[in-house]
Amino acid sequence: VQLQASGGGLVQPGGSLRLSCAASGFTFSNYWMYWFRQAPGKERELVTNINWDSSNTYYTNSVKGRFTISRDNAKNTVYLQMNSLKPEDTAVYYCAAGRTASLNIDYWGQGTLVTVSS
Question: How far, in Å, are 1, 31, 62, 64, 81 from residue 14 at the CA level?
C-alpha cells in the first residue's frame, strides 16, 4: 500500500496550491480519503475528507470556502485545491485512507510541506 502526496511548497499569502495524493495497493474507490495537517508544535488535525463517490465532503471551519477536496477514482488520486492561503495554513499535509468517515485510518501517506510566507 502506498499513498504518495505531492504538490507542497512555498507560496505567498493569498496564493494557491494544489496537492495530489496518488494511491496504490488497495481498492481506492472503496475508501474515504482524508487530508490532515500538522503545524509546528501543534497536534495533527483533520482538514477535509471525501467519500467514495464524492457525494459527501467535510471541511474544518478554518478552511471552508478556501479549500476543495476532490478525487478521481479512475486515476486513484485525491486532490486538495487550496486557495487564499494564509500563514496559519503552514503545515505538513498528509493524505490518508479509511473505510468509513469515523477517522479510523487504515493507511497514511508521507507528508508534503506547505509554507505560506511572504
Answer: 35, 32, 15, 15, 13
